[in-house]
# Entry
Amino acid sequence: MEFEEWRPLYEDIISDFGYSKEKDKISANILIDRRGTDCLHPLEDLERRVVEIGGPYYSKTEIEFKVAAGSALTQMIENEIIPDLIVTDLDGDTGLQLKMNRKGVPVIMHAHGDNIELIKRWASRFDGVVISTCQCEPPEEGIYNFGGFTDGDRAAFIADHFGAKRVVLNGWNLVEPYGGPDEIKIEKLRWARKLLSRLDLPIELIRDNGKKEKI
# Structure
Protein backbone atom coordinates (compact mmCIF):
# COMPACT_ATOMS: atom_id res chain seq x y z
CA MET A 1 0.00 0.00 0.00
CA GLU A 2 1.31 3.44 -0.93
CA PHE A 3 1.21 6.17 1.70
CA GLU A 4 -1.51 8.25 0.03
CA GLU A 5 -3.82 5.25 0.30
CA TRP A 6 -2.68 4.65 3.88
CA ARG A 7 -3.01 8.31 4.94
CA PRO A 8 -6.74 8.32 5.88
CA LEU A 9 -6.27 5.17 7.96
CA TYR A 10 -3.27 6.75 9.66
CA GLU A 11 -5.30 9.87 10.42
CA ASP A 12 -8.04 7.73 11.99
CA ILE A 13 -5.53 5.75 14.06
CA ILE A 14 -3.75 8.77 15.53
CA SER A 15 -7.11 10.39 16.26
CA ASP A 16 -8.39 7.24 17.98
CA PHE A 17 -5.29 6.78 20.17
CA GLY A 18 -4.34 10.43 20.62
CA TYR A 19 -0.93 9.98 19.00
CA SER A 20 1.25 12.90 17.97
CA LYS A 21 2.08 13.41 14.30
CA GLU A 22 5.04 15.53 15.35
CA LYS A 23 6.49 12.78 17.56
CA ASP A 24 5.98 10.27 14.75
CA LYS A 25 8.01 12.52 12.44
CA ILE A 26 10.73 13.02 15.06
CA SER A 27 10.97 9.27 15.53
CA ALA A 28 11.20 8.68 11.77
CA ASN A 29 13.98 11.22 11.39
CA ILE A 30 15.94 9.75 14.29
CA LEU A 31 15.68 6.28 12.74
CA ILE A 32 16.95 7.65 9.41
CA ASP A 33 19.84 9.31 11.21
CA ARG A 34 20.71 6.33 13.43
CA ARG A 35 20.19 3.52 10.90
CA GLY A 36 18.26 4.10 7.67
CA THR A 37 17.75 1.39 5.03
CA ASP A 38 20.40 -0.84 3.50
CA CYS A 39 18.30 -2.23 0.64
CA LEU A 40 14.86 -3.62 -0.19
CA HIS A 41 16.14 -6.84 -1.73
CA PRO A 42 14.93 -9.12 1.11
CA LEU A 43 11.36 -7.99 0.48
CA GLU A 44 11.53 -9.06 -3.16
CA ASP A 45 11.55 -12.65 -1.88
CA LEU A 46 7.93 -12.17 -0.75
CA GLU A 47 6.62 -12.14 -4.30
CA ARG A 48 4.21 -15.01 -5.07
CA ARG A 49 5.07 -16.70 -1.75
CA VAL A 50 2.88 -18.06 1.00
CA VAL A 51 4.09 -15.98 3.94
CA GLU A 52 3.72 -17.11 7.53
CA ILE A 53 3.71 -14.37 10.17
CA GLY A 54 4.49 -15.78 13.59
CA GLY A 55 2.53 -14.61 16.62
CA PRO A 56 2.84 -15.07 20.39
CA TYR A 57 1.28 -18.58 20.32
CA TYR A 58 3.41 -19.80 17.43
CA SER A 59 3.58 -23.49 16.53
CA LYS A 60 5.59 -25.19 13.77
CA THR A 61 4.23 -25.49 10.24
CA GLU A 62 5.67 -26.56 6.89
CA ILE A 63 5.30 -23.08 5.37
CA GLU A 64 8.66 -22.09 3.93
CA PHE A 65 8.78 -18.28 4.20
CA LYS A 66 8.51 -17.17 7.81
CA VAL A 67 8.29 -13.71 9.36
CA ALA A 68 8.66 -13.02 13.09
CA ALA A 69 6.46 -10.13 14.21
CA GLY A 70 7.85 -8.40 17.28
CA SER A 71 8.05 -10.47 20.44
CA ALA A 72 6.93 -13.61 18.54
CA LEU A 73 10.58 -14.08 17.64
CA THR A 74 11.10 -15.66 21.06
CA GLN A 75 8.43 -18.31 20.43
CA MET A 76 9.81 -19.07 16.98
CA ILE A 77 13.35 -19.56 18.28
CA GLU A 78 12.00 -21.79 21.06
CA ASN A 79 10.42 -23.88 18.28
CA GLU A 80 13.83 -24.02 16.55
CA ILE A 81 12.62 -21.78 13.71
CA ILE A 82 14.92 -19.14 12.23
CA PRO A 83 12.66 -16.58 10.47
CA ASP A 84 13.41 -15.10 7.07
CA LEU A 85 12.46 -11.60 8.26
CA ILE A 86 11.89 -9.84 11.58
CA VAL A 87 9.34 -6.99 11.82
CA THR A 88 9.75 -4.96 14.99
CA ASP A 89 9.36 -1.60 16.67
CA LEU A 90 12.18 -2.68 19.04
CA ASP A 91 10.09 -3.86 21.96
CA GLY A 92 10.09 -7.46 23.15
CA ASP A 93 13.47 -9.22 23.36
CA THR A 94 15.46 -6.64 21.43
CA GLY A 95 18.71 -8.35 22.33
CA LEU A 96 17.51 -11.51 20.58
CA GLN A 97 16.42 -9.46 17.55
CA LEU A 98 19.91 -7.94 17.44
CA LYS A 99 21.53 -11.36 17.74
CA MET A 100 19.46 -12.80 14.88
CA ASN A 101 20.16 -9.76 12.69
CA ARG A 102 23.89 -10.26 13.23
CA LYS A 103 23.39 -13.89 12.18
CA GLY A 104 21.93 -12.76 8.86
CA VAL A 105 18.18 -12.25 9.40
CA PRO A 106 17.00 -8.95 7.85
CA VAL A 107 15.11 -6.65 10.22
CA ILE A 108 12.29 -4.28 9.27
CA MET A 109 12.66 -1.62 11.98
CA HIS A 110 9.70 0.66 12.68
CA ALA A 111 9.57 4.22 14.04
CA HIS A 112 6.64 5.79 15.87
CA GLY A 113 6.24 8.45 18.51
CA ASP A 114 6.34 6.05 21.45
CA ASN A 115 9.62 4.26 20.69
CA ILE A 116 12.02 7.17 20.28
CA GLU A 117 14.18 6.12 23.23
CA LEU A 118 14.34 2.52 22.00
CA ILE A 119 15.51 3.74 18.60
CA LYS A 120 18.20 5.88 20.23
CA ARG A 121 19.37 2.94 22.32
CA TRP A 122 19.26 0.13 19.76
CA ALA A 123 19.02 1.16 16.11
CA SER A 124 22.68 1.84 15.37
CA ARG A 125 23.70 -1.47 16.99
CA PHE A 126 22.04 -3.52 14.23
CA ASP A 127 24.78 -4.19 11.70
CA GLY A 128 22.97 -6.78 9.57
CA VAL A 129 20.51 -5.79 6.83
CA VAL A 130 17.92 -3.28 8.08
CA ILE A 131 14.91 -1.73 6.34
CA SER A 132 13.48 1.30 8.14
CA THR A 133 9.74 2.04 8.21
CA CYS A 134 7.65 4.67 9.93
CA GLN A 135 4.09 5.31 11.09
CA CYS A 136 3.83 8.74 9.46
CA GLU A 137 4.47 9.98 5.95
CA PRO A 138 8.12 9.17 5.17
CA PRO A 139 9.97 12.48 5.65
CA GLU A 140 12.81 11.65 3.22
CA GLU A 141 14.58 8.82 1.45
CA GLY A 142 15.81 5.88 3.49
CA ILE A 143 12.57 5.13 5.30
CA TYR A 144 9.27 3.69 4.06
CA ASN A 145 5.62 3.28 4.96
CA PHE A 146 3.91 0.29 3.35
CA GLY A 147 0.88 0.49 5.68
CA GLY A 148 -0.04 -1.38 8.82
CA PHE A 149 -0.12 -0.49 12.50
CA THR A 150 0.94 -3.27 14.90
CA ASP A 151 3.92 -5.51 14.12
CA GLY A 152 1.65 -8.34 12.96
CA ASP A 153 -0.67 -6.50 10.61
CA ARG A 154 2.22 -4.33 9.38
CA ALA A 155 4.04 -7.51 8.35
CA ALA A 156 0.93 -8.53 6.39
CA PHE A 157 0.78 -5.14 4.67
CA ILE A 158 4.44 -5.49 3.69
CA ALA A 159 3.78 -8.99 2.31
CA ASP A 160 0.84 -7.64 0.31
CA HIS A 161 2.83 -4.66 -1.00
CA PHE A 162 5.57 -6.93 -2.29
CA GLY A 163 3.27 -9.39 -4.01
CA ALA A 164 2.81 -12.31 -1.61
CA LYS A 165 0.31 -14.94 -2.73
CA ARG A 166 -1.20 -15.63 0.70
CA VAL A 167 -0.57 -14.80 4.36
CA VAL A 168 -0.92 -17.16 7.31
CA LEU A 169 -1.05 -15.53 10.74
CA ASN A 170 0.27 -18.35 12.92
CA GLY A 171 -0.46 -18.19 16.63
CA TRP A 172 -2.56 -15.04 16.90
CA ASN A 173 -5.54 -14.05 18.99
CA LEU A 174 -7.11 -10.84 17.65
CA VAL A 175 -9.59 -10.58 20.52
CA GLU A 176 -7.68 -11.21 23.76
CA PRO A 177 -4.24 -9.62 24.13
CA TYR A 178 -1.24 -11.79 24.88
CA GLY A 179 -0.35 -11.32 28.55
CA GLY A 180 -3.86 -10.52 29.77
CA PRO A 181 -6.57 -7.84 29.55
CA ASP A 182 -5.44 -4.36 28.52
CA GLU A 183 -7.82 -1.83 26.99
CA ILE A 184 -5.23 -0.22 24.75
CA LYS A 185 -4.02 -3.59 23.47
CA ILE A 186 -7.62 -4.67 22.90
CA GLU A 187 -8.21 -1.57 20.79
CA LYS A 188 -5.00 -2.24 18.85
CA LEU A 189 -6.25 -5.76 18.10
CA ARG A 190 -9.56 -4.32 16.85
CA TRP A 191 -7.59 -2.08 14.52
CA ALA A 192 -5.40 -4.98 13.41
CA ARG A 193 -8.41 -7.01 12.32
CA LYS A 194 -9.96 -3.98 10.63
CA LEU A 195 -6.77 -3.25 8.71
CA LEU A 196 -6.20 -6.86 7.70
CA SER A 197 -9.68 -6.92 6.19
CA ARG A 198 -8.61 -4.11 3.83
CA LEU A 199 -6.00 -6.28 2.11
CA ASP A 200 -6.83 -8.10 -1.11
CA LEU A 201 -4.64 -11.15 -0.62
CA PRO A 202 -6.08 -14.23 1.19
CA ILE A 203 -5.33 -14.26 4.92
CA GLU A 204 -5.70 -17.30 7.16
CA LEU A 205 -5.51 -17.03 10.94
CA ILE A 206 -4.30 -19.92 13.09
CA ARG A 207 -5.52 -18.96 16.54
CA ASP A 208 -3.88 -19.59 19.90
CA ASN A 209 -6.10 -22.66 20.29
CA GLY A 210 -5.06 -24.04 16.91
CA LYS A 211 -8.37 -23.27 15.19
CA LYS A 212 -8.22 -21.75 11.71
CA GLU A 213 -10.31 -18.94 10.30
CA LYS A 214 -10.31 -16.63 7.30
CA ILE A 215 -9.99 -12.87 7.60
